[in-house]
Amino acid sequence: MNLTKNKPTKFLFRKTFIIKVSIFLIFVFLIFIKFSPSNIANFNSVMSGCLSFSSISSSLIFGSFSFINYSDGKASEIVKSMNGNIKIMSRLLSSSAILFLVSIISLLELMLFKFNSVSFLSTLLTSLWLSLLLYGALCVFYIFDVIFYYLKLKKNVK
């Protein structure tokens, strides 16, 4: 069974492009409906929880760089020939950067805005925060997808 032909790079590019366009459209929609801290029940608790979650997630993703397998073997050669190790590393780096930005925005929102704030800046930051949070979660799922694909490839090569 040849798994290298089942998931071409063009499909992966289209998948990430669709996700990025969707996140941008969500961001524009949230600004259009004026989504602000006043729309979030328990604003301070949600921001504190998101700050903790995104900080822990970004640190775990940074820590996972050391677990990328560079062992010798047929499966490892196939992954390297498909630039799989570079794809995984770039996804890990981009998702950790996104989640780090979510942490910074959460911290800014906690320091700058009250729960009943409806200013344009609060709407803009809250929309950006929610869009980046969704994008970060989708990046993490995409990383799992790529890693499971290469694990399946490694299992079928042996």
Structural write-up:
- The protein has 158 residues and is mostly helical.
- The protein is built from 5 helices and no strands.
- The radius of gyration is 19 Å and the shape is elongated.
- It is 76% helix and 0% strand.
In which range does the helix fraction lie? over 70%
Sheet with most strands = none
Strand content: under 5%
Structural class: mainly alpha
Mean pLDDT: 78
Poorly predicted runs: 1-6
From the alpha carbons, calculate the radius of gyration and give it in angstroms. Answer: 19 Å
* Count of runs of 4 or more consecutive helical residues: 5
The separation of the N and C termini measures: 12 Å
* Number of E-type strands: 0
Order of helices and strands: HHHHH
Characterize the overall form: elongated
Summarize the structure.
The chain is mainly α and 158 residues long.
Topology:
Blueprint: H1 9-32, H2 43-63, H3 74-81, H4 84-112, H5 120-157
Helix pairs in contact: 1-5, 2-4, 3-5, 4-5
Q: What would the keywords be for this entry?
A:
single chain; 158 residues; mainly alpha
